[in-house]
């Protein structure tokens, strides 16, 4: 598995991967409306604090992640996606996050990696915990999606 810089021309791929309003909210929270629009993805990746990556596996694009610069010492892993639902549950998400942590650890100023994950995304929560992320119970929030309240966890990991 390999992270490669995400480019403007990759934006349609993300839009093709997000098939429902629920998947869109699970992936991007309230930041993106469904159906996902190419121009909105391009606006997002153009932000100076966002470093987006396409995830390649065996030469095929299989996912996405962006690293958001929160401060000089903290980054947030955002919009983590293994696109092919049949490929989920095979450890690709763990590899993806591990690769992103490798990128993050190259910057000696970064001390903390954080992320947000919906509580009902249990596989993702387990994945992040297995990589050393810890839940911050005092920072648990909720987000509303189509009349449902979704619990949103915040997790952090100290970078050596």
Automatic annotation (TrEMBL):
One of its GO terms (molecular function) is aminoglycoside 6'-N-acetyltransferase activity. InterPro entries: Acyl_CoA_acyltransferase, GNAT_dom. Pfam families: Acetyltransf_1. Its EC number is 2.3.1.82. Residues 1-160 form the N-acetyltransferase domain. Coiled coil: none annotated. Keywords: Acyltransferase, Transferase. Transmembrane segments: none annotated. This is Aminoglycoside N(6')-acetyltransferase type 1. It comes from Grimontia celer.
